[in-house]
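Model it.
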Amino acid sequence: MGKTADSRATGARPDPVRSFNRWKKKHSHKQSQKKQLRKQLKKPEWQVEREVISRLMQNYEKINVNEITRFSDFPLSKKTLKGLQEAQYRLVTEIQKQTIGLALQGKDVLGAAKTGSGKTLAFLVPVLEALYRLQWTSADGLGVLIISPTRELAYQTFEVLRKVGKNHDFSAGLIIGGKDLKHEAERINNINILVCTPGRLLQHMDETICFHATNLQMLVLDEADRILDMGFADTMNAIIENLPKKRQTLLFSATQTKSVKDLARLSLKNPEYVWVHEKAKYRSTPATLEQNYIVCELQQKISVLYSFLRSHLKKKSIVFFSSCKEVQYLYRVFCRLRPGVSLLALHGRQQQMRRMEVYNEFVRKRAAVLFATDIAARGLDFPAVNWVLQFDCPEDANTYIHRAGRTARYKEDGEALLILLPSEEKGMVQQLLQKKVPVKEINYKRINPEKLIDVQKKLESFLAQDQDLKERAQRCFVSYIRSVYLMKDKEIFDVSKLPIPDYALSLGLAVAPRIRFLQRMQKQPSKELVVSEDNKVIEPRAPSLTNDEVEEFRAYFNEKMSILQKGGKRPEGTNYRLASGISDKEEEEKEEDDKEEMVEKLRRAKGSPLESVPSSEESQKDREAPVQFLDRDDEEDDDGLETDFFKVKRHNVFGLDLKENKTLQ
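Modeled.
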């Protein structure tokens, strides 16, 4: 009996393994049912994203500028914030704080801030957010247009865009001169964000059939004052005519006036003005920038530069020159002098790919010296630059501010040194003080003479051994004199006060090359004013052209035009000079003399200044055809005009009115 009772007791107890399996089966069934129910109730991704966007847009109106210190304080998408963090952008600058909120709200913005204040991110963040809000895809075409004045600045903007926007699905493209137009045309339709220069963009609008901007949401103009200064006003007007009127426009620059007249052509609609540097009442440059100037004679400048580089071997420096030919010659010479630091050169005559290589190489190096023209003065961000040297006096105070702005960026320390001639000191220092630029003088006499190294004898030795280098020195000499001669402010830039023979010696030249325009200026008698009976001052009339001179000028012009139309080849009948033993160079010089003589005659007949009559080279630029400036090696320097300027309208080349043209015919 006890046996059966025990067995009943054990039989009544449930099997734990079987019970667990039953519970597991039941639980997994319930879980699968819940999963299916959640799937049915779950919203699609696009709907979730749209709700996130609507929440962000509701927060745009709540932005309080005073409370913002980081990018994460703005109502931005997770993708943009992630890109900023990965690119090490966390804290906002003043221009970013003031601008991003207004741009997110869809307002047009006209922003000005000191150079190096972070204007690039101030427009790139709103650009990414604008397309994210619209859920833009490659099928929607071009959504944002970012126009920069120079290729280098466009390339730099594109690189920052790639870093910050890499988590988004938008496509971005860089359209600049110096690259294959057909290759760009094939891909331009699939680009959502286009970074470009004005000339190249207009060329695509003219020549690329399938390119259009009908869906454009935002136009960004970076360094807008520079775009206009470089002569792109007509180009910009033509571009804006092809853009939809319903769009948002952001305009940024380092130097602007409050007058909207200069910027009205850029079609801003009721813009919000952001003037960050107004708060800095006492300076137009960063407080972390130490600025000095030194006054020395023209013939001492090269030795001063070499001595400076020798005493700053572990520093990163940029040296600014006024022309390409100066950069080309002095770069080659300093490479031979071996100052003990890596040297690089950046100027407008380089091929586009070479420019990019130089830019990237200088950014990578910890200690290097970059010889550059003003092509590197605007907008380019060279990290960790310790020194900016202005070897040649800048055109005005604004150019000085932009050059000096390549250092002391983003609250870092930096130093700037301006080398002035005695004739330039008074006017330039006065301009800088008017612009609230605090510069201190370093007395040249107090510099330790042991640290000054005279390199003139070495240069003479180099030129004696190398004929090509000698020719480059001659071109450098003429180019510098011309740059001073063509400056507008004659109170600062007076070519008659330059010690020309001594300057030639300092370049290593035994004899100063002939400067035709200077010789003409010296020969030209000063105009005597005639006082009439009514006590009115009347300028004497310039003599008119004789019939022989008109015929001679017409024959010269017809010959030049025939050469241009045949792609630069001279007609068969004009090769007689070569047969008579005259070299190419002499022939070229003789042609230059003929050309300048003709222009001088025409100038005398018209009574206008020499600068108002364009040369035949300029007339070629005025023809409505694509022009490539990069590979030219003529006597004119085009540092001021950027090489992306492809199309210009025809002009009255010789400055004559219609009646005079008829008489010539």
